[in-house]
Specification:
Layout (H helix, E strand, L loop, with lengths): L2 H24 L4 H6 L6 H13 L6 H9 L5 H27 L6 H8 L4 H35 L3 H48 L6 H11 L12 H8 L9 H9 L6 H32 L10 H9 L2 H39 L5 H22 L7 H25 L5 H20 L15 H18 L10
Amino acid sequence: MQLGVWISLAAYFLLMIAIGIYAWRKATSSSEEYILGGRGLSPSVTALSAGASDMSGWLLLGLPGALYVSGLSQSWIGIGLTVGALVNWIVVAPRLREQTERYDNSLTIPGFLGARFPSTARLLRMVSAVVIVVFFAVYTAAGLVGGGKLFASAFGGDYMTGILLTMGFVLVYTTIGGFLAVSLTDFVQGCIMMLALVIMPVVILTTDGGAGVGPAVDRLTAVDPDYFSMAKGMTLLGWISAVAWGLGYFGQPHIIVRFMAIRSVGDVPMARNICMSWMIVSLIGAVAVGIFGHAYALRNGLTVDDPETIFIILSDLLFHPLVTGFLYAALLAAIMSTVSSQLLVASSSLTEDIYHALVKRDATQRELVAIGRLSVLAVGIIAAVIARDPDAQVLSLVSNAWAGFGAAFGPLIVLALTWKRMTGLGAVAGLVVGAVTVILWIALGLNQSLGGGEGLYEIVPGFVASWAAIVLVSLATPDRGEFRRL
């Protein structure tokens, strides 16, 4: 590996650690500061933190790999995500920011749900915390798989060593600086990711081996006439499964917790516009990397054994070592921004919703911060164990965890914020039914084969079942007037 690559990577890692130290000095004196940064995030930091923690290694590995193999029809996932993210910013963001402060200054999603439904507070906090920790262990593992693939593919190193190194750097700045460190590093990482996804397609098309857009399109359609068809191989179930990814946004704790931390409700529209602009540019860039990366491989006789590594391969082939190091840093940024956010949210639930709420209610602020740091370490170790299989696919792991959160928490969050008649028992029912439906759907293989044909993404039945359970159980149980008015 050339010196320039290591110089760029070293600069990136030092910057992340420096941000962690800055955040430690500024905002880790209390549980609220460690978990939510004191509710003082600016619109720009909130926007890019939400976007970067959302997209993860999927943006630079999973999505380009899917486009590389199957063509433009795979872009329906990106379209569904864009619509879902926009609705999430409009419906959930302002309400969650206002209501989490109104309901006992809640610091976590389970804490908010417990305050919103006091009749079932302990049960709701415990169940939701368990769901968060279980699914985040899988979700974090997806990010670590990306780190392992980068280390093995780019550096020729050991896959497991890559996982441990990725986790090690994330643990350093997350345990030191808490939520503020995670949010500030997300902001920097989001900028790096978007810049990389703009640079890469341009260089692919303008380099000698690329030959421009027209020849690239001709080369791909010569191999597969339907490569650019949005309907290629698409059935109704397949289309629903793709666009249904957007439903997951409403229930992703590591994303919506950013809404809780923004400075004020009035800052939400500006943050929304910044985030959506970043997201659209980044998704278009990822699609272009997959498509034109495939054209480049065909033109130059390049063998790509794992399509999810096309970004890594082209980074090494097309750029000066210093720029290659920057592009590797962009991939690490995508991975680490999500992993750090997930670790912090999972540890926050363990700290606030299990240890503080159920084990030791009189714990000091210093003690809670210490427990939070230990929880980050514990969840990270579990995720590393899950990610140890080098044949694991990033997109597959992400899709399972995304569906679990979307089905368990999506209807629960939306209805808790908007429907006054919802009851505590309805909340518990929706949470359990959504999570169990997703798990059973995956276990029975219905997400891959339904009725002998194409499967249906598990988030669809999970979301519908959870929503129905909340409505039916709420209407069947007494209204205790648990919705607080301003």
